[in-house]
């Protein structure tokens, strides 16, 4: 039977094209246009070529200095967050019950922080950490620690990292739990017959089986922490000084605080390029994870 | 034109987006006239023509930014048109990007 060509599908995807055009493509084109120009407001623009990019990529200039400082700060934050959340998530997932009423209970408890809106998380920790009325801040000070996240950069960093760990570790735990659940019981039976230790079971069975979900968890947490804005903005506002000013906060300061549209546009393009590359790696790893496993299984 | 004044178009960015649009149109035309199958290249992942175009574009952006960061955009020649149009050294980055794109399309 011959196929009847039907072009109606084009008509049906038209709304999506229109929405994407207005929500993404046209704003993005505008940002590219801004990034090669300078403006003093009133919709008057002056050609600046790649001037902003040159400034942005040169750490000795004001703009470049700010960009690289916030980039390193952001990478340090992502690194710290990953270094805590991934092991913690694995430990929590290993400790979770496998059957009975405890499964549903722990799943709900773990999902709770994930359901709270980001600005509310920020507000919770902003109040929680205050040394006058916050339980944590007040308590730490009563215990003799000189804790004040508004004035001390280290305290501010600790507060934000602990907040992120509180907010997102359960995501890692839930992903690892799903990975653990997919391991057939036969593997554990074989291990117990061989007399394998708890550690050997973890390194030889559980960790390799969790590899793919861990890759997803690491990339997801990296992306999220690299684009973080709301929580540190609410808790510290980027301070004290610039100590917790991450890329997105710096970008908003530049675009909406100083109204330097050209500089901000150049910075967003470079920022977006980094995110696109990480995103591509994320997508490629995710879509090829299954195929990879099949190939590895075939060789054995 | 009044309606899109806020988009702050320039001739250069208009040419840039027109080129991107032309490339996409060519890709659509190619997909319709010469359908292709995925293949596995040096990255060890199956890629289509679109994947390779995406990689080439991202690579081109990285090459241009690296060029701006490490070399700069000093003029290297003056074209004898009108009062003389300065040719930025960035065009060398564009040439490198084109070569990189050809390599990506052949090997990845």
UniProtKB/TrEMBL annotation, chain A:
Coiled coil start-end: none
UniProt keyword list: Membrane, Transmembrane, Transmembrane helix, Transport
Major localization listed first in the record, in broad terms: membrane
Annotated GO biological process: transmembrane transport
Transmembrane parts of this sequence: 12-36, 75-96, 103-128, 156-180, 213-230, 264-285
Membrane topology, as annotated: Multi-pass membrane protein
All residue ranges annotated as the ABC transmembrane type-1 domain in the record: 71-282
UniProt subcellular location: Cell membrane
Gene Ontology terms: cellular component: plasma membrane
PANTHER family the UniProt entry points to: GLUCOSE IMPORT SYSTEM PERMEASE PROTEIN GLCT (PTHR43759:SF1), TREHALOSE TRANSPORT SYSTEM PERMEASE PROTEIN SUGA (PTHR43759)
Family in the record: Belongs to the binding-protein-dependent transport system permease family.
Name of the featured protein: ABC transporter permease
Organism: Reyranella soli
Taxonomic path: Bacteria, Pseudomonadati, Pseudomonadota, Alphaproteobacteria, Hyphomicrobiales
Automatic annotation (TrEMBL), chain B:
InterPro entries in alphabetical order: DUF2160_TM
Domain of life from the UniProt record: Bacteria
Chain segments annotated as transmembrane: 6-32, 53-70, 90-107
Keywords: Membrane, Transmembrane, Transmembrane helix
Entry keyword Transmembrane: yes
Protein name, per record: Membrane protein
């Amino acid at each position: 039977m011959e196929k009847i060509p039907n072009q109606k599908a084009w008509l049906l995807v038209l709304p999506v094209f229109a929405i994407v055009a207005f929500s993404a493509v046209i704003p993005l084109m505008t940002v590219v246009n801004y990034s090669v120009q300078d403006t003093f407001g009133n919709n008057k623009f002056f050609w600046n070529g790649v001037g902003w990019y040159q400034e942005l990529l040169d750490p000795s200039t004001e703009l470049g200095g700010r960009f690289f400082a916030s980039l390193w700060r952001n990478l340090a934050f992502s690194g710290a967050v990953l270094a805590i959340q991934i092991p913690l998530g694995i430990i929590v997932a290993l400790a979770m019950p496998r059957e009975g009423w405890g499964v549903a209970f722990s799943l709900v408890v773990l999902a709770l922080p994930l359901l709270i809106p980001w600005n509310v998380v920020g507000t919770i920790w902003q109040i929680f950490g205050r040394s006058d009325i916050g339980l944590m801040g007040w308590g730490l000070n009563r215990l003799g620690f000189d804790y004040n996240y508004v004035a001390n950069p280290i305290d501010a960093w600790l507060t934000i990292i602990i907040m992120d760990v509180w907010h997102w570790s359960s995501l890692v735990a839930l992903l690892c739990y799903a990975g653990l659940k997919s391991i057939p019981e036969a593997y554990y039976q074989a291990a117990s017959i061989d007399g394998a230790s708890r550690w050997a079971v973890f390194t030889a069975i559980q960790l390799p089986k969790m590899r793919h979900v861990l890759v997803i968890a690491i990339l997801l947490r990296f992306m999220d922490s690299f684009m973080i804005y709301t929580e540190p903005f609410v808790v510290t506002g980027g301070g004290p000084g610039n100590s917790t000013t991450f890329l997105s906060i710096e970008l908003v300061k530049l675009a909406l605080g100083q109204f330097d549209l050209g500089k901000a546009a150049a910075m967003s393009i470079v920022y977006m390029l980094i995110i696109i590359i990480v995103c591509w790696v994320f997508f490629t790893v995710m879509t090829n994870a299954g195929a990879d496993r099949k190939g590895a299984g075939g060789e054995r | 034109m009044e309606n899109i004044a806020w988009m702050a178009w320039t001739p250069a960015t208009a040419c840039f987006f027109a080129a991107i649009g032309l490339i996409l149109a060519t890709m659509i035309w190619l997909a319709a006239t010469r359908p292709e199958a995925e293949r596995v290249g040096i990255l060890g992942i199956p890629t289509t023509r679109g994947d390779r175009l995406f990689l080439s574009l991202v690579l081109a952006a990285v090459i241009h930014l690296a060029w701006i960061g490490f070399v700069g955009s000093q003029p290297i020649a003056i074209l004898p048109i009108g009062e003389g149009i300065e040719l930025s050294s960035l065009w060398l980055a564009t040439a490198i990007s084109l070569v990189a794109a050809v390599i990506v399309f052949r090997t990845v």
